[in-house]
Amino acid sequence: MGRGYSAVMLSVIIPALNSADSLGATLHSVFEAGSGDQIIVADGGSTDGTRIIAEESTARVVHSAAGRGQQMAAGAAAADGDWLLFLHADTVLEQGWREQVSAFMVKAGASYDAGVFKFALDDPSAAARRLERLVAFRCKYLALPYGDQGLLISRSFYQAIGGFAPIPLFEDVDIIRRIGRPRITLLDRRAITSAKRYRKQGYIIRPLLNLFFLALYFAGVAPAQIGRLYR
Length: 231
Fold this sequence. Notes:
The protein is built from 10 helices and 8 strands. By secondary structure, it is α/β, with parallel strands linked by helices. It has one domain: Spore Coat Polysaccharide Biosynthesis Protein SpsA, Chain A, CATH 3.90.550.10. Strands 3-2-1-4-7-6-8-5 form an 8-stranded mixed β-sheet, sandwiched between helices. Helix 2 links the parallel strand 2 and strand 3.
């Protein structure tokens, strides 16, 4: 293996669906590390320029049924790396992320731990900063990061816990719960995600809806049923 910053190869897996407006920046942030990592875009049947953008960037494109859980599982199945980094298609990693990842991967015992990045939004507003603080609180006291913070995990650990479940919603919460609170490390770099959905639905309504759907999930409502309500 012996590629990049460490002796362990990293596969970056990006699920995408009609993500042409954001995917280019996401790919640039992972390619600019210059480490020779494998980049995989797991496309869920895009009808815009998503696949063209991915192919032009030299990322490997794999095809999957739509749904983040299924797409990330498909990307992981196609990956060659001993380590996997799952990243949303509207998220840009802060400069210096690769050094943080390398340090984590070589840490003793890390092969059965997982890393996530700090949550941030690409919005300079005070409302965005408040939401970032709320997410930081949730991560610190509830150990419940979401998928827009990325997920770094060894292939062996990913396989041991069964990988991403093919569920239509909360695939990120599901896998975090199986990883377990003591095994989650917050990396010292930000994953900067598009605030488009918050600008559209509002910084109060959107988080409240997310909290409502999360409460349904923890109450045992089937993800498929929650997905119908979500849509």
